[in-house]
């Protein structure tokens, strides 16, 4: 099979899985409000920096990219 076709199939499957996790897991996974995320509220100003959420997403995306690279060898 053509490597581009494999990449598109795996990418499509990954997108479906991410969509399902986002739709169903959004109720159970509290991404964006994890312990360690920085939230500061002073008066009318709100500052929110989801640092732990960024780290978790970075690790997850790195693993997905590793799997995609493994399948396309």
For the termini, the CA-CA separation is 12 Å
Proportion of residues in β-strands: 5-15%
Instruction: Categorize the overall geometry.
Output: elongated
Helix percent band: 55-70%
Give me the strand/helix succession. Answer: HEEH
What is the average of the pLDDT values? 85
Radius of gyration: 17 Å
Q: Strand order, biggest sheet?
A: 1-2
Give the low-pLDDT segments: none
Count of helical segments? 2
Q: Please indicate the count of domains.
A: 1
Explained architecture:
- With 73 residues, this protein is an alpha+beta fold.
- It has one domain (3-71).
- Helices cover 60% and strands 14% of the residues.
- It is built from two helices and two strands; from the N terminus they run H-E-E-H.
- It has helices spanning 3-25, 51-71, and strands at residues 38-42, 45-49.
- It has a two-stranded antiparallel ribbon with strand order 1-2.
- Strand 1 (38-42) and strand 2 form a beta hairpin.
- The chain starts with a helix and ends with a helix.
- The mean pLDDT is 85.
- This is DUF2905 domain-containing protein.
- InterPro entries: DUF2905 (IPR021320).
